[in-house]
Amino acid sequence: MTAIALQGVSVALGGKTVVDRVDVSVRDGEWVAVIGPNGAGKTTLLRAIARLVPFSGSIELKGRATSTMHRKELSRLLAVVPQDPSTPPWMTVAEYVLLGRTPYLGALAKEGRRDRDATARALARLDLLGYTDRRLGTLSGGERQRAVVARALAQEASIVVLDEPTASLDIGHQQQALDLLDTLRGESELTLVAAMHDLTLAAQYAERMVLLDRGQVVADGTPHEVLTEELISRHYAASIDVVSVEGRVAVVPRRGSARG
Amino acid sequence: MVEAAAAPDVRPRGLSPAWACAAAAFLLVAVVVGVMAGPVDLGVGEVLRSIGARLHVPGVTSPLTETEEAILWQIRVPRVVLGALVGGMLALAGATYQGVFRNPLADPYLLGVAAGAGLGATLAIAYLPEGLRSQRALPLAAFIGGSVAVVLTYAVGRSAGRERDAATLVLAGVTVASFLTALQTFVQQQNADTLQQVYSWILGSLPSSGWEDVVLILPYITVATAVILVHRRVVDVLSLGDDEASSLGVDVRRVRLVLVVAATAGTAAAVAISGLIGFVGIIVPHTIRLLSGVGYRALLPLAFVVGSGFLVLADVVARTALAPAEIPLGVVTAFVGAPFFALVLRTSRGGAR
Asked: Has the ipTM of the complex gone over 0.90?
């Protein structure tokens, strides 16, 4: 089944077209990396999918147009892990992850048994059970990232949209975070759409890559199909080699010959 | 993988019994001091028996004379109740604004309530004929002024752009407040004979007008407090910012409007009766936060209770320190509040934050 279907999606910000007639469809359980140079419209595209910016065209989640959904319904289908999530320093990890249950609660309701269980499961999945009473302000970057993912998981949405999920992590933690997402995807049948900068890293996890440039989809396919010297050098204005290490794709920059 | 059965029960840190009791005890002490303090010594036992008689406890009669009864029930108790309502409302509104606007410096007067109420009161004092310038006309004028100011702030904020975000609204509030303050200052200068009266209103005080004022503001404050408290969990969600709150299914614009309207209506009612009492709306929520480190869910109810107690005590200082003269309440809250807050800041360094 189709998890996400975009048809002719455009977003204009301040009179400038940032996302330009994008058609993409994502199958259930797929991991799609959205790549592209700075300013290509990756973040805006993700925000449109989450209905956080006005867009034209049609976006359907599980066959239903997001524009007709109630905000809460949408949040039960789709969770967002923002690039730079706000993590109020006074909030405890448990409180923070519990906020993921908001789409299931009326404005005046209190969390019930189900909500606390879902939160406990999410904390357990991310090895945060020992951290429940720790304040967010006392966590390391990697721990905080896990708390953010736990919150998205507690939301029990089958689609998770991530904006640069590994931007602030070192390579070890990047790997841990992506491995974890991959495991969660398998266990909970999640559909993942992630904007990513690190092409090599993205290629190891994503089944499919969508390359954006100036708001338009310029390539869409497997990492082998999208990460070619020709495509990357053209759209990133970069000078690179694409090498294959035991069947896996890696992008290696060439020194001193960046193209303007 | 750990399964749900093995997982512990995860609960939000609600209002912990310890903090709830501490806040309630503080309010109780404040009320007792507020009722007992005054030029006429009524005696604790006598007051208790008078309360018993009022509550129709069998066999208890009031030992107080008629005058003492009147002092207790027509002057002191209503003034304490009024102080509690005003203080609680200001602290609660301040905490709400801080959460909704994600701004630690937000106070209940952020959107121009104070400037509007000040203008309303000044106009009433300066231009209403002596006969109409009664106890009733002044609060009404202040309330209308405060409400109009906030509506104006919203209108300016809306016209400012598509974004309509919290920051735009705060800037609109600053704009409207400066404009109305300029008008107020102008009117005040043109009518120098009423300067004293305007000035003492601006510095804030609680009237000793019996139950009338309590009855007047009680509905506003009750409704405002109820609306804010039922939304207290959502204020925690709003503290993540508009985008994240939206992606968690919150209709941010609607919730923010509801909370701001409630906090503003309550503040306008409080200000209409008491004038501009500064500091309570900022100091009380921050003190609670620094000492207990709780989120909005627990902070909001605590702020009301502690704010109530704080203003009752401040009023005791205001009316007894230089008795029979009264010190403006706004002066007391800042004079007592500022050093206390400095102490809290110092002792909680790196602690509960």
From this structure: no
Residues from chain B that touch A111, judged by Cβ atoms under 8 A, are: 11-12
Stated pTM of the model: 0.87
Bond before B324 cis per omega within 30 degrees: yes
Name the residue among B112, B123, B119 with its Cα closest to residue B155.
B112
In chain A, residues with a C-beta closer than 8 Å to the C-beta of B6 are: 124
Q: What CATH number has the domain bearing residue A161? A: 3.40.50.300
Closest CA to A90 of B306, B167, B239: B239
Provide the chain A residues 192-231 that lie in CB contact (below 8 A) with chain B.
none
Which residue segment(s) compose the domain that A20 sits in?
2-88+156-253
Question: Residue A43 domain-assigned?
Answer: yes
Q: Which of B248, B297, B302, B353 to mutate to test the interface with A (most CBs of A within 10 A)?
A: B248
Distance CA A4, CA A58 (A): 10
Could you report the per-residue pLDDT of B176-199, keeping only the tens digit for each? Answer: 999 999 999 899 888 888 888 888
What domains can you pick out in chain B, each with its CATH number? 77-347 (1.10.3470.10)
Hey, of A98, A99, A126, which one would you mutate to test binding to chain B, going by the most B CBs within 10 A of its CB? A99
Taking the CA of residue A152 and the nearest CA in chain B, the distance in Å comes to 9
CB pairs under 8 A between A and B: 110
Digit-coded pLDDT (tens) for B33-42: 999 988 888 8
- Asked if residue A17 belongs to a domain, the reply is yes
**Is A126 inside any structural domain?**
no
In residues, how long is chain A? Answer: 260
